[in-house]
Amino acid sequence: MADKMELNEVEVWDGNYAASQALRQAQVDVVAAYPITPSTPIVENYGAYVANGYVDGEYVMAESEHGAMSACVGAAAAGGRVATATSSQGFMLMLEVLYQASGMRLPIVLTVVNRAVASPLNVRGDHGDMYAGRDSGWVQIDAFNAQEAYDLTLCAFKIGEDLDVRLPVMVHQDGFVTSHTAQNVYPLSDEEAYAFVGDYKPVDEMLDFSRPVTYGAQTEEDWHYEHKAKQHKALMESYKVIDKVFEEFEKKTGRKYNRLEQYMMEDAEVAIVALGTTVETAIYAAEQLRKDEGIKAGVVAPRSFRPFPYNEIREALANVKSVAVLDRSCPMGAMGALYNEICGAMASTPANPLVTNYIYGLGGRDFAVEDAKNIFREQKANADAGYITTELQQFSGLRGPKLAFYEAKRS
Amino acid sequence: MIEIRWHSRAGQGAVTGAKGLGDIVSRTGKQVQAFALYGSAKRGAAMRAYNRIDDEPIITHEKFMYPDYVLVIDPGLAFTDNITENDKESTKYIITTHLNKEELISQIPALQDKADRVFVVDCIGISLDTIGRAIPNAPMLGALMKVSNMFELDFFLDSMKRVLAKFPQKIIDANMDAITRAYNEVK
Predict the structure, then answer these.
(1) How far apart are CA A18 and CA A151, in angstroms?
(2) Do B35 and A12 touch (CB under 8 A)?
(3) Residues A50, A95: one domain?
(4) Cα A252 from Cα A247, distance rounded (Å)
(5) What per-residue confidence (pLDDT) applies to A411?
(6) Does B61 sit within 8 Å of A367, measured CB to CB?
(7) Which of residues 354-373 of A touch B (CB under 8 A)?
(8) Partner residue facing B32 (CB), from A8, A183, A367
(9) What is the pLDDT along chain B (187 residues), one digit of tens a residue?
(10) How far is A205 from chain B (nearest CA, A)?
């Protein structure tokens, strides 16, 4: 029986420590890992919890991230509760196996501390790795601060392991800005946290020798398509379970999460759509602009990046005049992925907001409150003019000459 | 909101100091943030750590700040780092040095119109005397308590004992001495 840890009502934890405490409280059976900055402390702490008797689990040191996720797939197929952590290059090396995990419907939890992808080499936060996972068939939940990294990691087990979902779940947090920033965190006690997550319910576990099963079978054109379509359906419909888990979490803690978070949108004329810590910085900027400059600014943020909250986006932006969609990943030859999602959602509604795209914060470039204000001010100018006054894609916070692409083709 | 910027070398304990301060302040019902900007992540490299303290939840995640306090825990960085960057009319400086205040300010042009807001304390000397190693973070917190009036010395010492609880008694006692000396010696 694992030892309990006494936690204070308020702790000062960084995002990494918060995520590792959630893994401990969920009593993960197997963590197979190949540590990488900035997510190293998550698995390092879990290893210490195992060594010090706080978890009845196994810590498996792998030879690479490909090996780490492969070991996670094996352990999950065997019938255990499984989790690991990674970032950036490690995420890229895992990528092949991420598709295996979701295709085999193994509810592994991957805590991703978002970091830029080389080259050039960079250890700081952007969303390049998170975006690379968006077609991998995992549920992707995004935390904007350390408290949320803790809360959502607990929720992730309950979402992924639900028998109506049975899919792996990533919980994302921003490298350094969340992972290495200590802040007030209000944890649950070990008993409350475990009671919320619940016992693991294995499905078709390979260690049940009385009922042999196959994982990772080959299907060619006869069945592959049907399998993938069924997996997509499960992910599309997982929103019901996500909503249910968020409701249960609110009952337990008073902290309410939504697949699409909205701030000051009731009367908003202009909005920023963003992910990660930028969401909170943008809220801070919006509050000041409302007070100081009379700009009715609001913020919209997909908490659930996959499944994407399509319907909720359509409702949230129905009455907004101008929207800035912020992508913290270089789209390399296209518009940002989040921009495309938002435009796709709004194209099927009668609302016709002016939507532009901002690339920002690559490789950890600071996203300051003033940057957010400038973006809101440009939206206000669009709203007042009634047309897009800037190029469609701009780069915020870039040094050197201004970089922007595409003119609007409507007035 | 109170904002604090630490100038340190990696290994001198600025991150531990910033997190320890956050920990203590959080227990008084305040909201805190503690983070760092590492340079090349090598021991001895110049780096900065930051604290924010407020009554409301702190939701800005920008690294940029106009600091209320600048804490310099490596004596050399007062000369080589841009310690007055983004300062305000009210920014207070606490600088680790073996020099007296006049000697220090006479050698740093950027501080010459801020003499009334500059405080000096020899955190390196104090930590060598008390802890036996050049770990200037704890004494700097003692000096900060005196200059800022954030907490009474006794309350702060009790809180630090809790933060340091995992260490042997000898190390806790040495840190208490270091904090108390810096509190009394900062000028």
Answers:
(1) 9
(2) no
(3) yes
(4) 9
(5) 67
(6) yes
(7) 366-370
(8) A183
(9) 999 999 999 989 999 999 999 999 998 999 999 999 876 668 889 999 999 999 999 999 999 999 999 999 999 999 999 999 999 999 999 999 999 999 999 999 999 999 999 999 999 999 999 999 999 999 999 999 999 999 999 999 999 999 899 899 999 999 999 999 999 999 9
(10) 42
The verdict on A171 and A270 lying in the same domain is no
Q: Is residue A255 within 8 Å of A151, Cβ to Cβ?
A: yes
Asked whether the beta carbons of residue A183 and residue B63 sit closer than 8 angstroms, the reply is no
Distance separating alpha carbons of residues B98 and B75, to the nearest angstrom: 8
Of A12, A284, A367, the CB nearest to B59: A284
- Rounded CA separation B141/A389 (Å): 50
Q: A31 - beta bridge partners?
A: A59, A83
Q: Domain ends where: A253, A285, A303?
A: A253
Residue A323: give its domain's CATH number: 3.40.50.920
Compute the nearest-CA separation of A35 from chain B (Å).
17
**Domain identity same for A187 and A148:** yes
Of the partner residues A145, A284, A366, the one whose CB lies closest to the CB of residue B63: A366
User: Strands of A58-61's sheet, edge to edge?
Assistant: A58-61, A30-33, A82-86, A109-114, A169-174, A139-142, A304-306
**Residue A292 CB-density burial (10 A; 0-12 exposed, 13-18 middle, 19+ buried):** exposed
pLDDT tens-place string over residues B131-147: 999 999 999 999 999 99
Same domain membership, residue A220 and residue A345: no
**pLDDT score of B39:** 61
Q: Do B27 and A176 touch (CB under 8 A)?
A: no
Domains and their CATH numbers in chain B = 2-185 (3.40.920.10)
Q: What is the ipTM of this complex?
A: 0.92
Contacts of A75 (CB under 8 A, 6+ apart): A29, A30, A32, A58, A60, A82
- For residue A8, the chain B residue with the least C-alpha distance is B27
Within 8 A of B60 by CB-CB distance, chain A residues are: 280-281, 284, 369
Question: A234, A253, A272: which is the final residue of a domain?
Answer: A253
Residue A2 falls within a domain, yes or no? Answer: no
| Sign, Cα dihedral of A114, A115, A116, A119 | negative
Hey, are the CB atoms on B61 and A283 less than 8 Å from each other?
A: no
Domain that holds residue A216: 11-253
Q: Which residues of A touch B58 (CB under 8 A)?
A: 183
Residue type, A197: V
In total, how many domains does chain A have? 2
- The pLDDT assigned to A104 comes to 97
Q: Are A16 and A76 in contact (CB under 8 A)?
A: no
Which residues fall within 8 angstroms of residue B44, CB to CB, at 6 or more apart? Answer: B9, B10, B11
Q: Tell which of A8, A10, A12 to mutate to test the B interface (max B CBs under 10 Å).
A: A12
Residue A274 placed within a domain: yes
Question: Running along chain A, 411 residues long, what does each successive block of 10 average in pLDDT?
Answer: 93 97 98 97 97 96 98 98 98 98 98 97 96 98 98 98 98 97 98 98 95 94 96 98 98 98 98 98 98 98 98 98 98 98 96 96 97 98 97 97 93 67
